[in-house]
Specification:
mainly beta, seven-stranded mixed β-sheet, four-stranded antiparallel β-sheet, 11 strands
Length: 126
Amino acid sequence: QVQLVESGGGLVQAGGSLRLSCAASGLTFPTRAMGWFRQAPGKERDIVAAINRGGSSTYYADSVKGRFTISRDNAKNTVYLQMNTLKPEDTAVYYCAVDRFVREGVRTAKSEYGSWGQGTQVTVSS
C-alpha cells in the first residue's frame, strides 16, 4: 500500500521560504514520477511542480517559476519542494502525489496520479 507523508508546512511572512518534504513508502520510489499540487479554499487542486523518476526533468506552473524548486532523493524515497519568495497567494494545502504507472516523463494532470498524501498547510502572511 502506497503511503505519502508530507511535512514542512507552516506560517511564514511574505518573502520568506519553506521546504516541503514528502516521504514515500509501499512502492519502488525510483520508478515513479512525482508531483506537488496545491489547493486553496474554494479552488481546484492544481499542479505546482512535477519531476520525472530520475530527477532530470521538471515542470513548474507559471505562477511559481523562478521561486520554487522540486527535487528528489531516490535513496531516501523523498521528494522536496523548496519554496522561496513566498507570496500570500501561495497560501494553500500542499499535496504530493505519485504517478499511477511506471513510465518515463513528467506528469502534469491530476488524473495521471494515483496516490496522494494527506496535505500540509502553507500560510503566507502579508
